[in-house]
Amino acid sequence: MKNLCLILFYLSPFLSFSQSGIGQIRGVLIDSLTTKPIPFATVALKTADNKLITGVTTKENGDFQFEKIVVGAYKLEISFVGYRTKLLDSIRITTEKSWIDLGQIKLVVDTRNLKEVAVVGQKALVEDKGDRLVYNAEKDATNTGGTAADVLRKVPMLTVDLDGNLKMRGSGNIKVLVNGKPSSIMARNLADALKQMPANIIKSVEVITSPGAKYDAEGSAGVINIITKKAIQGTNGTVNLTGGNLNRSIGGNLTVKGKKLGVAISLNGDQFRGIGETSSTRTALTNGIPTSMLKQSTFRDNTGTSGYGELSVDYDPDTTNRINFSANAWGGTFPNNSTLDSRLTDIQGNVVQAYHRDIQFRNPFGNTEFNLGWTKSFKKPGRELSVLTQYARMPDNYYYTIQQTGIESTIPTYLERSTNLSRNNEYTFQTDYIHPLTARTKHDTLSFKLEAGAKSILRNIGSEYVIEQATTGLEQDYRIDPNRSSEFTYSQRVTSGYASMKMDSKRKWNLTAGVRLENTSIQGDFVTTQSRFSNQYQNLIPSFTLAKTFHNKHTVKVNYTQRISRPMIWYLNPYKNYSDPKNVQTGNPFLNPELTHATEVSYSTFGKEGSSFNAALFWRQTNNSIEWLTTVDAQGTALSAPQNIGRNASYGANMSVTLQPNKQTNISLNTELTYVDLTSVALNQRTSGWVWSVGPNASYKLPKDFTLQANGYVNSGWISLQSRNSGWYYYGLSAKKELMDKKITLTLNLNNPFNRSNRQTGEQFAPTFTAQNTSLFVNRSVRLTLSYKFGQMSSGGKQSKKISNDDGRR
What CATH number labels 2-107? Predict the structure, then answer.
């Protein structure tokens, strides 16, 4: 690692354009029809005799700039996919005229269809976009045919354990968006959702550690935005088919884009198989003295099925207006069937209770969402007004049945079944306005972007649950248990407004500052017991980022923000899961929101051929931190529920290095080191320690469109207030072959080929118990993916805007 860093720093002076001179050239690139800025276009600076000197890419606002140019005559060649190349000549730098402002430069759309695009070089696997870190998943061959969990394991600052649980810098309080929108599936059961989302549809993953004022204030650790692949304009589509021992999927998309009207359809279905087993030993304590011992073992082998479909329609009545409508549905079922052997003994070893349980647990889920929006652009590049609306319906139901027998018997002695019907209807209205400004001084040029907006979200949530039992073991003797059945309703309204300003200077200073005001109103009703509660609070959330770029490639950045985390129905629902009567889980309707302070100092640089280096030091403190806590009673029964524990502080550093020694080779390494400190004054507990992770990745492109890739990951484990877990690892190999002018792609992936499973150990500790557990996860897999592209392609056009409820659900 030290050598890699030294290589980057020693090479950086030779990779930059460092002519000494007095001249400067700047301009702004815009679309000739829409007058909107064109970001990421290539601007090449050439001599009068057409020799290339250097080049830059335009910023998000279309701005570009060359500095320290020697006296002489020059040309500019501007190019971007989908536009006609533009050549500007007769540009002369003299001692009298050393600063040239070309103003707005218009590019004309090239309406010809693209038959073949030759790509020179390749996009870096990890990119620093200023306010976010981007992992380009589509460039990683080992992702093909896998799941979202496989993708996120390779993203800097993120860790995904063997069971799919996601954390960012040691915190699980993360907002996960899909294309800038919330997903109820991601929010409700993130681990299961990541296993069911196909990696084939993921284009990139954005990690936003310090979201600005325009983002909802939810999510103490930050925001993750999963960007799915969108078809290029024209009439075109793709079909993907994956077969394997743990993953299977089929999907595709079709896009038809006319002059004003565009229609896109996407359909995907997948299956994921999960195999694992767990054994645990727990000792109950009373005043520190052991009173009983519980030994349990479970086994599970389940296959979940899910599907996703989306229809989107975009209509452009003219060059400055866009109306967009979309409807999507995501649903399926992921069973969690298992067998459980349980033996409870007293401290002398006498058996108090012993039984075997066959548990059938299913969780059909769904999400239906409708978006309708209007976006108005103006002649001034970057000025924009949008009005967006959204309705989402998210049913979420649980069912389980239990058959209990003796350890060595097949005759049922006890039956139980449970139904929990949960619903969430969500209504959102949002309006945003963006206004750019430019100010010039004698020594500098300042570009401003002012943003303001308002938003209102109303959520109506309900849960009805019933538990029935037959103590005789006979079906006809089922009776409702009134002590474990109830009805709960909950409503939440979040009203917010924000204002922010972003300033870019010609001298490469960048300042973003904003403030967001959110008002939250909550009402809950335990219908069965006729008891109610309500709460209302306001939060003023500031955000601040200051960055300076040196020599067009070295950027130093410092930022600070606050975040708030409101507990939602998945944490508040008082439904108790008794599928394992010795380990009962329930929600807590009286939770308070978390408030997090986050500060970060970072450095990033990049070189030619895609090499990059990103490093950050961070500090995060969460007050009223929510943790799942467990207590054990005298009968050896554990009750787990979320509680506000007190303070959760994290201090650490992360680093990402990408090297591309040549056009064929890509090497990257992601590392993180964090010190976690959790303190609860009320519980008189404190847990602290270091956690770390390392993730290497390497790919090599052979002749004849053949690519080999290898990746790995090692993690030290996690720490919570009541537990510590051992680390885990994984590794993978892949081979990809492109055929028929790259219309067909075959990818073979091998994951953990030399180890059938990973084993993880852990320990729990609290005043009422101590416990040790061992978990085994089967993760050796092989999969083969076939991808086929068809149709004509052309580029250009506008991007539709949609609601982004990144305050989402926890």
Answer: 2.60.40.10
